[in-house]
Automatic annotation (TrEMBL):
Biased composition (Polar residues): 203-213
A GO molecular-function descriptor: transmembrane transporter binding
Organism, as annotated: Ictidomys tridecemlineatus (Thirteen-lined ground squirrel)
Record field: transmembrane: 162-183
Domain named Ig-like: residues: 26-148
Protein name (database record): Sodium channel regulatory subunit beta-4
Region Disordered, residue ranges: 197-228
Major location category of this protein: membrane
Residues annotated as signal peptide: 1-30
Keywords: Cell membrane, Disulfide bond, Glycoprotein, Immunoglobulin domain, Ion transport, Membrane, Signal, Sodium, Sodium transport, Transmembrane, Transmembrane helix, Transport
Functional note: Regulatory subunit of multiple voltage-gated sodium (Nav) channels directly mediating the depolarization of excitable membranes. Navs, also called VGSCs (voltage-gated sodium channels) or VDSCs (voltage-dependent sodium channels), operate by switching between closed and open conformations depending on the voltage difference across the membrane. In the open conformation they allow Na(+) ions to selectively pass through the pore, along their electrochemical gradient.
InterPro entries: Ig-like_dom, Ig-like_dom_sf, Ig-like_fold, Ig_sub, Ig_V-set, Myelin_P0-rel
Amino acid sequence: MSRAGDRGKALARWLGTGLLGLFLLPMSLSLEVSVGKATTIYAVNGTEILLPCTFSSCFGFENLRFWWTYNSTDVFKLLIDGTVKNEKSDPRVKLKGDDRITLEGSTKEKMNNISILLSSLEFSDTGKYTCHVKNPKENDLQHHATIFLQVVDKLEEVDNTVTLIILAVVGGVIGLLIFILLLKKFITFVLKKTREKKKECLVSSSGNDNTENGLPGSKAEEKPPTKV
Ligand SMILES: *[C@@H]1O[C@H](CO)[C@@H](O)[C@H](O)[C@H]1NC(C)=O
Ligand SMILES: *[C@@H]1O[C@H](CO)[C@@H](O)[C@H](O)[C@H]1NC(C)=O
Ligand SMILES: *[C@@H]1O[C@H](CO)[C@@H](O)[C@H](O)[C@H]1NC(C)=O
């Protein structure tokens, strides 16, 4: 009986989440944050890279807060934190976690661009970069978008490696499938041959040899009786 209750509760929760989602949907469409199409960016150590981020808000904004965070497996840090007064002003940086970071782009003329430039790249800069935006005009609605940065030695090599890995995996899978098919065929063939051989030898010592009368060694009598 408690099981039915649990199920009812789960259903209620599910419905509740669904309804809440319906309510939130029009709101979440108003503020959007985007880091562009690429979810992973490759950059060479020692160079610089632009991490793109733009936002859009159909209600307009005032004292909009934006910040970038960095996250890797063992590190989490705030990279840059600032505000944009209104649609006619450029962003003002309040806090910067690293001298190698500069805020690029502009928030004037509906550009809403809060991209950052990361210079003197080190291998340890590899990780997740998240761009957050919070708009007080929209109930402090917060949105964010994440980009993954991979700092590498050389660009081409990584591309080749990735392609090679993909090709190798695809090739490996296809090869394995073919191998399995062949193996199956081979095993079937061998089994058939073995069975045939057994028949030929007229030996049926194994218990699972089901001859019609069930008698071991009676396979020879399977032939139609010959008239004398
Ligand atoms: C990139 O890192 C390698 C290995 O640490 C180093 O030898 C090389 O000088 C670095 N390249 C740049 C441009 O800093
Ligand atoms: C950082 O990333 C890890 C692994 O993806 C995740 O478990 C963790 O919640 C993230 N931390 C923050 C503060 O976002
Ligand atoms: C944002 O600004 C940077 C720096 O000016 C620029 O390179 C980039 O193309 C801009 N992004 C968009 C989407 O306009």
